[in-house]
Amino acid sequence: MSGYDGGKRGLRRDLLDMRAQLPAGEIRAAGAVLARRALALPELAGAGTVAAYVSVGREPSTHALLDQLHAAGVRVLLPVLLPDNDLDWAPYDGAESLVRAARGLREPAGPRLGPRSVTEADAMLLPGLAVDRRGMRLGRGGGSYDRVLERLEQAGVRPAKVVLLYDAEVLAEVPAEEHDRPVDVAVTPGGVHRFAVPSPPSSPAV
Ligand SMILES: Nc1nc2c(c(=O)[nH]1)N(C=O)[C@@H](CNc1ccc(C(=O)N[C@@H](CCC(=O)O)C(=O)O)cc1)CN2
Ligand SMILES: Nc1ncnc2c1ncn2[C@@H]1O[C@H](COP(=O)(O)OP(=O)(O)OP(=O)(O)O)[C@@H](O)[C@H]1O
Q1: Membrane-spanning residues where (predicted)?
Q2: Which of 23, 80, 143, 183 has the fewest Cβ atoms within 10 angstroms?
Q3: Which ligand places an atom closest to the C-alpha of 139?
Q4: Is residue 195 a contact partner of residue 172, using CB atoms and an 8 Å limit?
Q5: H-helix or E-strand containing 78?
Q6: Within its chain, how far is the Cα of 113 from the centroid?
Q7: Distance of alpha carbon 28 from alpha carbon 184, whole angstroms
Q8: Which residues lie below 8 Å from residue 199, measured CB to CB, with a gap of 6+?
Q9: In the chain, how many H helices and how many E strands?
Q10: Beta strand pairing status for 123-126 and 49-51?
Q11: What is the spatial distance between Cα 141 and Cα 130, in angstroms, rounded to a whole number?
Q12: Which atom in ligand 1 lies closest to the alpha carbon of residue 103?
């Protein structure tokens, strides 16, 4: 890692330590309640294609959510990590179609659709370690989702962006750099947090 990151690295360590200390019961319970809350969001309820991810380790579980979206006939795209940390995408075709991959990840075994295919998503679930009041998200530091968010912006599409976290990971402020882009919603076991979308400069009244 290079350069000044505004304190992201130390904060990531603290947040991962906090996850390591979460009671097993809280971790187990989180997946079901997150799936219920996320599926109730209008942004997800109306989505034909959702870009998601397969949770690993102590991340809030996405397994129930993936299976419920899939069962409902939603097209679910999952990331495939490329050697430069960029993301390719492939469809989710049920838990048995996932294979073990680098860095403890589980990835879809099916055909890869190319990094640009993420621009077809109506909604996107993002992993993260924390979010702040502005919706600025702290990720693991690979810059994978920074690139995805830039790609969406360049394609001129605005899928609803939803980060899944534990309650204590919604913070007042996380360090943000020039390349960081906000998410719209954070879903935690305790509730749904919506962030204001900065409005464009207002045009003069007529
Ligand atoms: N579930 C999940 N999938 C994801 C991400 C993620 O954060 N979570 N990514 C987000 O960009 C991309 C992969 N990037 C990753 C970057 C770092 C590590 C990582 O630090 N892994 C640890 C071991 C895993 C653990 O148990 O925590 C390691 O390599 O030491 C994993 C994935 C795409 N898929
Ligand atoms: N659009 C981009 N293209 C290429 N590299 C980028 C882009 N945006 C950010 N990066 C690089 O990625 C690295 C990690 O950025 P950052 O610390 O913000 O990651 P993060 O947002 O926490 O992680 P992630 O995006 O994987 O969730 C930085 O070195 C940054 O310069």
Answers
A1: none
A2: 23
A3: 2
A4: no
A5: strand 75-81
A6: 19
A7: 26
A8: none
A9: 5, 11
A10: parallel
A11: 12
A12: 29
Distance of alpha carbon 164 from alpha carbon 183, whole angstroms: 11
Q: What is the predicted ipTM? A: 0.90
81 CA distance to ligand 1 centroid (A)? 9
Length of the chain: 206
Contact 136, 149 (CB under 8 A): no
User: Ligand 2 centre and the CA of 29: distance in Å?
Assistant: 31
Reduced to 3 states, what is the DSSP secondary structure of residue 109?
coil
Mutate to test the pocket of ligand 2, among 86, 146, 148, 151 (most ligand atoms within 8 A of CB): 146
Please tell me the distance from the alpha carbon of residue 144 to that of residue 85, in angstroms, as a whole number.
Answer: 6
Q: Determine phi and psi for 29, rounding to 5 degrees.
A: -75, -25
9 lines ligand 2 (CB under 6 A): no
Nearest residue (CA) to ligand 1, atom 17: 140
Residue range 20-49, pLDDT digits in tens = 999 988 888 999 999 999 999 999 999 999
Query: Alpha carbon of 55 to those of 51, 136, 172, 178: distances in Å?
Result: 13, 20, 25, 27
* Predicted structure pTM score: 0.93
Ranges of H-type helices in 40-194: 42-45, 63-71, 144-155
Q: Which residue has the tokens 């509730």?
A: 191
Within a 13 Å sphere around the CA of 140, how many CA atoms are in the beta-carbon half?
Answer: 9
